[in-house]
Write a structure and sequence with these properties.
Distance between the termini: 56 Å
Helix content: 40-55%
Structural class: alpha+beta
Radius of gyration: 32 Å
Strand content: 5-15%
Number of helices: 26
Oligomer: single chain
Shape: globular
Mean pLDDT: 89
Low-confidence stretches: 1-11, 22-29
Length: 631
């Protein structure tokens, strides 16, 4: 009917009625509100997220999702900070959960408690009881919820049954069972000692167990030993504790079996991925890794004979004796993942919340995984879903997408089971600093540079300084911008007066005066640009050096404290910075210039065979261009 009307084959009144309807329909499409989502997986193979977005837009015709990858999984904090400060943040961001508290403390994210309470009767709205306690707790800070958890990647022990069978006699001779993996720390060290093999030159050929290969870190072993890293009130860092020290000592002992940390790192430096994955080809007998590894294993090692088990725990925890006598959980793992959050200043909070509700619901997760599964089948690949933070969705995904290969199905079931006993990195404003120092302590102790106790104490001191600075921030006086602004104006005014006096003292004729005026007019764009874009930021940086300022909150005056820190707590970093500058400017640049000059002089000599040498020298520069031209 519409086609007939528009074609002129029906009476003019019909067209007069239908044409406005068509125009109104077009306007309704144009009026759709755009919701910007950062961190959503994108690309030709991301069919799951695409299906999720399509279904959401079908159910919400007034909204349109603008998905930007923005380094999903490796979100650049500078981008987010710039967007928030500039008043143009995304409406939704897929953020690493452990960093939520740091951003929330600086006012970067909007609390979601009011939206959760308002929509408590909405079947799509997230509810705390639907989620694993650790995943939900990691998205909270100071009692408020700042994100809705999506994934819940936990760690389990993978062991290569083929290697265990090959070393069965040696394992039995050591009193170990080759039909099962280790269950305790002491067993892990004993198994590793037997399973580790070396070639005739003494180099590692097979590593039984590398403590930090895969994804374990000190966090996992410390959590198993009931270490907390932060005090209950969140004001004291407890990186150094008897529990953490014992966990780190276990890692040090694990590396000693391999010949030391550096020897293990040298062995790992030759590792490759995909078909040459060290676990697939038998260079690693045991490793602790996350659920994400299953997709790679089923693709590149579907015939690999491996087993899955809980990560080995302290002997007393496994036996439930001593301080673990009353423990409910015999095994403990470490859990991480991402969450959807709404940045402070988002323009479309309501639309963003509607998307988060749908994307994190059990229904939304099933839609996403079904579409991804169908795409993987088209490519001839098996599909194994990731572990979700949503209990119901996790169980539904396991039942619907359970792998047909028994050992892969058992591994996925183990990940689902251990999600209930996951521990999390403490939600704290110094989460990144705590992570960095925990890594430094691990490496220093395993290399033998420091004792486990000293390495942890040094890291704890650094984190505590940052923690104290954060809490002291609220007691510091605000920076009165009128003072530095007035001083800056006064300085520039004084310079202008001095310049005026200098000009007045130099008597010039009419022509010279006109030439001078025109000269300054012509260079004025550069002068203005220098003052605004170079001198201005330099002055601002100098002023901010007397403050505690993180861009997202207002600067607070600390006086000379930052300069004092340079010669005390930051002394080593200062020395390293000056050494790097000296090395680059005093050694690197001169050496590069001298070497280049010597090569140029050599190419310009009339020595015998110089033509051949020139040809060989320039060949790497010429051949790519020639090849590209031919192609």
């Amino acid at each position: 009917m519409l086609a007939l009307c528009l074609a002129g084959q029906v009476a003019r009144p019909c067209r007069a009625i239908l044409i406005p309807i068509v125009l109104l329909g077009s306007l309704s499409v144009w009026a759709r509100t755009e919701i910007t989502v950062w961190g959503l997986a994108a690309g030709p193979d991301a069919k799951g997220p695409e299906a999720l977005v399509r279904e959401f837009e079908r159910r919400n015709p007034d909204l349109k999702i603008r998905a930007l990858r923005m380094g999903a999984g490796e979100m650049n904090p500078q981008k987010l900070m710039t967007a928030i400060v500039g008043g143009a943040p995304p409406d939704v961001i897929n953020q690493d959960r452990f960093s939520l508290s740091d951003w929330a403390a600086r006012g970067a994210f909007r609390p979601l408690d009011d939206l959760i309470a308002r929509d408590k009767d909405d079947p799509l709205s997230p509810k705390e009881e639907q989620y694993y306690p650790s995943a939900w707790g990691e998205a909270r800070y100071e009692g408020k919820v700042y994100g809705i958890p999506t994934s819940a990647d936990d760690r389990i022990l993978y062991w290569n049954r083929t290697i265990f069978r090959r070393k069965a006699a040696e394992l039995r001779a050591a009193g170990l069972d080759p039909e099962r993996p280790p269950r305790t720390w002491s067993e892990t060290l004993a198994y590793s000692k037997v399973l580790t093999e070396r070639d005739e030159r003494g180099n590692l050929k097979t590593a039984g167990f590398i403590p930090n290969f895969g994804n374990s870190w000190l966090y996992l072993f410390a959590f198993q030993n009931n270490a907390s890293f932060m005090s209950p009130d969140g004001r004291t860092c407890t990186l150094h504790s008897p529990e953490s020290e014992e966990a780190l000592r276990f890692m040090v002992d694990g590396y000693k079996i391999l010949g030391g940390y550096d020897e293990a790192q040298k062995f790992q430096s030759g590792f490759q991925g995909n078909e040459s994955d060290p676990f697939i080809i038998g260079k690693i007998a045991m490793k602790i890794d996350g659920d994400w590894i299953l997709s790679s294993l089923v693709r590149y090692g579907p015939d690999l004979d491996f087993g899955a088990a809980p990560p080995p725990v302290p002997d007393d925890r496994y036996a439930r004796r001593g301080r673990f006598a009353g423990e409910k959980d015999q095994f403990v793992t470490w859990i991480g993942g991402f969450s959807y959050a709404i940045p402070q200043g988002a323009r479309n909070v309501e639309g963003a919340w509607r998307f988060i509700k749908f994307a994190t619901s059990a229904e939304g997760r099933l839609i996403e995984n079904r579409a991804q599964r169908d795409w993987e089948r088209v490519r001839g690949r098996d599909y194994i879903p990731r572990i979700q933070a949503h209990r119901e969705a996790n169980q539904a995904l396991y039942e619907e997408f359970k792998p047909t290969i028994p050992n892969f199905a058992a591994a996925l079931a183990m990940h689902v089971q251990l999600a209930e006993v996951g521990r999390i990195r403490p939600p704290t404003v110094v989460g990144q600093a705590l992570w960095d120092e925990h890594v430094k302590a691990l490496e220093a102790a395993c290399r033998g540079e420091k004792s486990p106790a000293q390495a942890l104490r040094d890291g704890q001191a650094v984190v505590q300084r940052e923690l104290d600075a954060h809490h002291r921030y609220f007691e510091l006086p605000k920076l009165d911008f009128r003072v530095p602004f007035g001083l800056t104006l006064g300085l520039f005014g004084l310079l202008a007066v001095c310049f005026g006096v200098w000009v007045a003292r130099h008597k010039m004729g009419r022509l010279a005066r006109q030439e001078t005026i025109w000269a300054y007019l012509l260079v004025s764009p550069w002068i203005v640009g220098f003052l605004v874009f170079t001198a201005g930021p330099m002055v601002a940086s100098f002023v901010f050096s007397f403050t505690q300022y993180n861009v997202l909150t207002e600067p607070k005056w600390v006086g000379l404290e930052n300069y004092s820190d340079l010669f005390t707590s930051e002394r080593q970093n200062l020395i390293k910075a000056f050494w790097n500058v000296f090395y680059l400017a005093g050694i690197g640049v001169p050496l590069g210039i001298v070497t280049s000059l010597m090569v140029a002089m050599l190419l310009n000599t009339a020595a015998r065979g110089i033509r051949f040498y020139r040809t060989v020298f320039y060949m790497p520069s010429i051949l790519p261009a020639v090849g590209a031209t031919v192609l």
